[in-house]
Amino acid sequence: QYNEAFMQEENKEGNKVVFSRRKIGGETAIILNEIIEGGLYSSFFGTLDSARIKSATDEALELVNASDADVIIIDLKNVDMIDSSISIHLVKFVKTLALVGVNVIFCSIQPVVAQAMISAGVEINDSLKIVKNLKGALHLALKQKGLKIVSVDPQ
What is the pTM of this model? Predict the structure, then answer.
């Protein structure tokens, strides 16, 4: 079973919200949203195999290219399983995005996914930005753009 849908809408604040859904066997592979000016949030879902990761990263590259984004948060919290070839593909995806001027921040990597990535030989270095959760990823993305969250007096 294969079904693909793209949706783009503008919410009441005027922000673009882009959803890219590819269903293979009933699972959604990727969702992509603009969360700050020039910043995207992407989340992968389910078990990532070669066909799903290739399709999902190709879609993400197309959508990143069509936007003015220079930072993307990739949330792996909802990824159930990953193998060594997928880990290597994700690292190549990060390098591809870097070549087109997009910084990548990974967040919420589950222990089983982390183990698979290390088993695949993924090098953890300064070019691979990894934070524990989405909150940390958002703070880092804002910092990269010279922005920060401040408290406002609710008067």
Answer: 0.77
